[in-house]
Amino acid sequence: MKKQLIYLVICLFALGNMQVNAQQLAAEKTVDISGKANRGYIGNVERDDAKKEIVVTYVTKSTNAKVKFEIYTFDYDLNLKSDVVDEIELSRARAKYTWFSFKGDSYVVEGVTAAPNLTGTFVIKKKQITYTWNWFLLKYVKFTKTLDKLKFEGENGKNMFYISHYENDETGEIIALAGEKGTSKAPYQQYQKYHIFRVNYGLEILSDITVDLVNPHKLLFSAPVADSKNPNAESQDWVVVLAPMGGQGMGKYEAADPTLYTVLRISPDGKLVSNMKFNSKAHTWTVRGALIDGENIYLYGPGYAKDMEKKFYGLADVPNEQAKFSDFQLVKVNSKGTGFVGVTSLTEFETKTRKPDDQKKPSVYNGKRVEIRNLTVGSEGQIYIIAQDYKVDNQGDVTGTIYTDLYLFQFDQKGQLQNAYGIDDDSRKGAILGGGVADARFYPSNSWLYEGKDPNHLYWMQFIPHRTKCETETSYGFSSTTKKTECRPLRYPRVIKLDVTKGTFEKIVQYGNGEYYLNEDFPMLYIENDSKIIFIGETKSEKGLWVGKFDPNSL
Predict the structure, then answer these.
(1) Total-model pTM
(2) Half-sphere exposure of 154 (CA within 13 A, CB side)
């Protein structure tokens, strides 16, 4: 097997007609690292405010039985205080470094999965999940093999209709939503009487909770959802949204109110945390994302507000990928009844679109499908949603996703749109190697928000793919040669200072100067009571560690 490293440097950095300031960081440092560290990965970054220290730890492979750690310690002015090498047995490494999650080159987890058969009956299959560490991508690559179908023995198992399920690969268990199969006297029972099952690898039903919705409801949304209070939890709560069904022939089975939706929150151990309801103001509502924030659940996505009071889920005509929605709905629900339902028309999005002064055309969210990334709740209850537009384009012989404009939607505490910020992405066109994977535009721009001391200002922190690093692996067989190319993006930080009271772009700065790129897993770290940020990355030559100190309030 032969490996060939290919470095793809995209054209010199430029930002078209938009003027961007390259600003000097408060402090900056590069440190040469060993070749092994370069081939390894940054396993952990931590701060110590008491000592005013930042510790960056590389993990490198030593032998099959040992692992080597290279530890670089900086003060808060980014002076290097020490660099230490620690070689230790793999079996002892996790005890000494509690964050160390490496479990060897590969390991297997056995679990179960669920699916409907041709008649919709709930069926369980066993599966094998193999995790293999990829030293180029610096993460485990997961391969799942589904095994034979198994009979689901349980009190109601063989009579259940499949609705949805959530697989917990950490435990091999599933949490499943199923309906009791209907009869001639109760033809819609599978959409009325739901069960929440927790099932382990031995097909034991660890819990079974019944949710009787009285009238038929159809699944609208189902996903594990991150909790803003514990975003790095290994297992997340499962959020399910159900909408009343209606249509020809349903007659007496229809709910009196087609707008009354149900939200279920289910814990990883199969417990029903909450069962809440709200009146939707949009039909054909496509939930693009959710966030748990304490007792609150936020749901958001596009839909249609016209004639909502007449529209059941079953009557909704779901548009195709290119169709435009007319409205955007943001919902907050909780068990205290202090939530809201806010709907904003796409016309209002257009009138409230904000752009940088030097950008010729505004980046307008027009209701077509975009990739909505995340929702953030501000310190005073204001709500921000980050999204990125994309298009499908041909690159070589492969059709891929090209990411374009970035959006930030600002809502008040009741879900009313205040501003819709839009800015051009700055990823550069790259090579067609590997079917387009070497093109930086094929990778989304990561971003998050930072609140400074002044409540009028918000900092939109963006990590823009500037170029890619690729590795082509060539395998030689008896009669053929195959090549597989894997790439990862190299990103630089772009910081946008917004005045959220005036709705203006105040300043746009970029760092790295095409010489330094952010680490994908640990791009930044807060210090000094979260008042300043440390960027963490690598030099262009990949032989050095780069750290930069950034004070958002100095912009």
Answers:
(1) 0.86
(2) 25
Taking alpha carbons only, the member of 464, 458, 506 closest to residue 358 is 506
**Which residues pair with residue 166 across a beta bridge?**
175
Edge-to-edge, what's the strand order for the sheet holding 80-89? 41-48, 53-61, 66-75, 80-89
Please say whether the dihedral angle defined by the alpha carbons of residues 320, 224, 530 and 520, taken in this order, is positive or negative.
negative
Q: What is the DSSP letter of 420?
A: E
Q: Which of 220, 366, 354 is nearest to 288 (CA)?
A: 220
Query: Per the structure block, which two tokens stand in for 89?
Result: 């047995």
- Dmax of the chain from CA atoms? 77
pLDDT in tens, 309-343: 888 887 766 666 556 789 999 999 998 888 999 99
Rounded distance, CA 468 to CA 441, Å?
10
Q: At 190, phi and psi to the nearest 5?
A: -65, -15
CA distances, 380 to each of 61, 224, 383, 390, 411 (Å)? 46, 26, 9, 32, 12
Rounded CA separation 276/521 (Å): 36
Beta bridge partners of 83: 72
Neighbour order of strands in the sheet with 205-212: 160-168, 173-180, 193-199, 205-212
357 φ, ψ (degrees, to nearest 5): -60, -35
List the chain residues with pLDDT less than 70. 1-23, 62, 64, 135-138, 149-158, 316-323, 393-399, 426-437, 475-480
Report the C-alpha gap between 517 and 510 in whole angstroms.
11
Rounded to whole angstroms, how far apart are CA atoms 424 and 20?
Answer: 12
Distance, CA of 102 to CA of 104 (rounded, Å): 6
According to the model, what pLDDT value does residue 435 have?
Answer: 47
Tokens 């204001």 correspond to 382
Tally Cβ neighbours within 10 Å of residue 413: 14
